[in-house]
tRNA pseudouridine(38/39) synthase (Drosophila kikkawai), 501 residues
Amino acid sequence: MSATNDKKVVINKRLKGLPRESLEKLSQTELIDKIVQLEAYNFQLRNLLQKKLTDQDRNDEEYAVLLGKDADSERVSKEERVSGKSQKQRKFDWSSAHRRHVLLKITYFGWDYQGFACQEDSNDTIESHLFRALTRTCLIESRSSANYHRCGRTDKEVSAFCQVISIDLRSKHSPESQLEAAALASEIDYCGLLNRVLPKNIQCVAWMPLRSPVYSARFDCVSRCYRYYFPRGDLDLVAMQAACDLLVRHADFRNFCKMDVHNGVTNYMRNLQSARVAAADSERHLTNSGYDMYYLEIQANAFLWHQIRCIMAVLLLVGQRKEQPSVITELLDVDSNPCKPQYTPAIGLPLNLFRCDFRPTTTRSANHPAAGGATEAEDDAMDISATENEPPSESSDLTEWIYSEENLQKLIENTQCEWTQFSVKSTMIRNVLQQLENLLEENFQTKEKVQEQVILLQDSVKPRQYQPLLERKRCESLENRIEHFVKKQRLIVKEDDQKTA
C-alpha cells in the first residue's frame, strides 16, 4: 500500500470557492480573472440547461431566471391572460409558524426519473419534485432552512419502497405539545397533502414525529437494504447463493464499485451484513422455468457508488457458470488484486431501496449544524455499531410511524394501476414468446431452449469469447487515482492529526 495509508485525503475546498477574507486579499487582476472564469462557467451551464430541459421546465420561473428570461414579465402576461385581476398568491407568513422535526417515508418508481438527488442540468429528479411539492403546500419555507437529510441517493432508473428523509415541517401545534396524542391526531395530514401535488409514481407513505431536532435520516441510519430483481433464465441459483455467502463481511469493496476518488471518497471499507437470493413469488407460484422472478437482497451499513450493480454483475457471471463463487474472495483480496478488472455493472432498472433501519437515539449533538455539515464523501463511509431494529422507547428519539387509512387506500389504488399497466404488457409479451418458442421447436426441433432472459441486465453485452475476470485488463489503482487528483489540486493529502480546514 502507498504512503497515503497513514494520511488523510480531503477535497481541496479552496477550488470550490474562496472565503470573503481571501477574496479581499486578491489583486484587481486576480479578481477580474476569477469573474471571467465564473462567467464562462455560467455560460456553459446555461447551454447545458437549454439542451436538457423540457418545455415544461423552461416555463418554470426558477429556470426562466437562470436562462436569462424576464420571469416577472412572463408571469404578469400569463396572469393577464387568465383574468384582469392580479393572481399573485399572498406569501405565507413564516414568522408565526410552528415547525416540527419528522421522518417522511417516500416510495417511488424511478424508471422515469434522472435519479433521486437534485442535479444542475435536470429538473426531472425525485428530489426536485419532492421540494416543489413541499414549497407549494407551504410545509417548508425553503430547502436551505428545512434541516433536510436523505437516507440514500438512488441513481437514474432506481426505485425505492422505503426512501426516508428527515426534515422540519410546518405544524399546527407549538413545540411543547407536539408529541401529545391530541396534537398528533389533529396534525396536518402531511402525506395526504403532499400526495395531492406529487406525481402518482412518487408518493409519501407515512411520517414519524421525532424527539430530537438533529436526528438525521442520513447519519442515524444503521443499515440500508436493497433488492435487485431478475428472471431465473438459465442461472445456477445455488452457485449465486454460495457467492453471496462469501460477500458477507467487513471488507474493502473497491473492486465492486465505481471509484469516486475525485469527490474525496478514498475509504472503500463497508460492513456487508447479509446477502441472499430469494424467489419474488411464493413457492406455489413458481413454474420452474426461466421466467420465474427472483431477487438479490443485500444489506449493509452503507453502499458505494454502483456497488450493488457491480456485485450483481459478478453474481450473474457466477450464475452463468462463467466464474466460480471463489472469484468473490479473490476480488475482495485487495492486496492480491489492488486494481479492479474491467467489467460492466448490471443495469439500474431492477434495483429498489427496500428497507432502512435507524438507531433509536441520535449520536449527533444538539448544537450540530442543521444540514450540510459533512461532505458527500463522509456520507456513506460511516460504520455503525448501534443495535439495529430496536423498538422505540421513552428515551428514544424515534416514535412510531403514523399512517392514514385513506392515504394507504389511495396509494394501493395508484400502485394497482401501475401493476395493471405493466402486467398487461408482460402478459402480452409472454404470449408472443410462447408462440415464438413453439414455432422454433416445431420447425427446427431444437433440443435446447433459448434462455437469455438475463442478458438485458448485463447491458446486452454478449462477447463471442468469454474472458475470465481476473485475466482482464485492470483499472487504475486507488493510489494512482489519489496521486492524479492531488497533482490536479483537486485533493489534498494531510497527516491524520492535522486539522482539515
Observations:
- DSSP finds 14 helices and eleven strands in the chain.
- Residues 82-87, 371-389 have pLDDT under 50 and may be disordered.
